[in-house]
Design goal:
- The complex is a heterodimer of chains A (263) and B (100).
- Chain A has 263 residues and is an alpha+beta fold.
- Chain A folds into 2 domains: 12-65 and 145-240, Gyrase A, domain 2; 67-118, no CATH class.
- Chain A has 7 helices and 13 strands.
- Chain A has a 6-stranded mixed beta sheet. In chain A, strands 5-6-7-4-8 form a 5-stranded antiparallel beta sheet, with no helix packed on it. Chain A has a two-stranded antiparallel sheet with strand order 1-2.
- In chain A, strand 1 and strand 2 (38-43) form a beta hairpin.
- In chain A, helix 2 crosses helix 7.
- Chain A is globular.
- Chain B is globular, with a radius of gyration of 16 Å.
- Chain B has one helix at 34-42; strands at residues 3-6, 10-13, 17-22, 50-57, 62-69, 74-79, 91-92, 98-99.
- Chain B is mainly beta and 100 residues long.
- The longest helix of chain B has 9 residues, at 34-42.
- Classes of the chains: A alpha+beta (263), B mainly beta (100).
Chain lengths: 263, 100
């Protein structure tokens, strides 16, 4: 079931939980929306422009979107018992039936991302079932407050990332559901590829304390490709509709972020 | 930039790694005086030739071992610590016994 946004125009300061990047979004006149208790940027500009941007090169902040993780010798079995499909080797991810993603970060550590189109409330069911008995040899690793979560989408996403990351993230060497734990703009990051329909998309989780720095670095790297921030609605539209839209027009750039002029 | 092959993550720039010192057996805590502890902690062997060293992939906080020729700076191989440490180290419990 898809969570529909409500109370569009909600103020982030009215929510106890908000992204570390909310000041950046306010500067861009973002339209926030309440996704059943989760506050996220729905859009910055016209939906048609944002969708075209997301297909070309768009950056979305998903830092408030539900996620979790677990670790321990018994973690793979516990996930399987909970009806999830854990990957069978490190640095791989598996798309779940509910649209989410489970990544294996090491032999005994897993990261769980909620699907963009799913109901955030469904995640609470998993959160409430963590074992309390240490003898089960699995413990939760929440990731919700320790990491920011960005999504870089678009046909040019790997080219923009190549400016900041030494690992080759192009399609020829970094496929669907591949995971790279590496340095991105000199901060540690977990990078996962989960395409949205036919559009490449990279989920990026990094230290929450350097979220503003990483956001600024990515936006700066995207400028030469005409990329700009996009809201959650643009990504969800891509996820739900595989049909590519009309080609991107260079004149339809983001209204508030312009490409850097050559000196 | 130099590359180092992390057993968990594959080849990465050397800037993503932290050196952790030589692999040396830890002295028995119950039969070691302060002088021996100081020598263990602060006086590396610093041998010329092939040595085994601790390295950490910082992005994942993953510690592993590397065999390196200190004369040529060639890394011969990297491998997970489980090849050397088959079991977890047992620590002394509060009751004087031992626990895993």
């Amino acid at each position: 079931m898809q969570a529909s946004p409500s109370a569009t125009g909600a103020s982030p300061t009215a929510f106890q939980r908000r992204s570390q990047l909310y000041r950046r979004h306010l500067d861009l006149d973002a339209a926030f929306a309440d996704y059943e208790g989760v506050l996220a940027v729905a859009a910055y500009a016209d939906p048609r422009v944002e969708r075209a941007l997301a297909e070309r090169l768009g950056l979305a902040d998903l830092s408030t979107w539900p996620r979790s993780g677990c670790a321990g010798p018994n973690a793979p079995q516990w996930l399987a018992d909970a009806g999830r499909q854990p990957p069978n080797r490190p640095n791989k991810a598996v798309a779940q039936e509910d649209g989410g993603l489970i990544a294996r970060l090491s032999e005994q550590e897993f990261l769980i991302l909620q699907g963009l189109e799913a109901d955030p409330g469904l995640f609470a069911a998993l959160q409430g079932n963590w074992p309390s008995d240490a003898a089960e040899s699995v413990h939760p690793l929440p990731h919700a407050d320790s990491h920011c979560w960005l999504a870089l989408s678009g046909a040019l996403a790997s080219e923009a990332l190549a400016k900041l990351c030494a690992v080759d993230l192009s399609s020829r060497s970094f496929g669907l559901c591949d995971v790279a734990q590496t340095s991105l703009a000199r901060v540690n990051a977990i990078i996962l590829r989960q395409d949205l329909g036919a559009t490449p998309c990279f989920h990026i989780l990094s230290d929450a304390s350097s979220a503003e720095y990483l956001w600024d670095a990515l936006v700066d790297a995207m400028r030469e490709f005409g990329g700009a921030p996009v809201g959650l609605e643009a990504l969800r539209t891509l996820k739900l509709r595989d049909r590519p839209s009309e080609s991107f027009s260079p004149t339809e750039r983001h209204p508030r972020i312009q490409p850097r002029k050559a000196p | 930039m130099k590359l180092l092959n992390c057993p968990l993550n594959g080849p990465r720039n050397i800037a993503e790694f932290t050196y952790g010192g030589e692999l040396r057996p830890m002295p028995d805590p119950a039969a070691t005086d302060a002088q021996q502890w100081a020598e263990h902690l602060f006086f590396p062997d610093n041998g010329a030739g092939i040595v085994t060293e601790w390295w950490c992939h910082t992005a994942t906080a993953y510690w592993f071992l590397a065999q390196r020729n200190t004369l040529t700076d060639e890394v011969i191989r990297t491998f997970p610590p489980s090849e050397v440490f088959k079991q977890g180290r047992k620590l002394a419990g509060k009751d004087g016994g031992e626990k895993s």
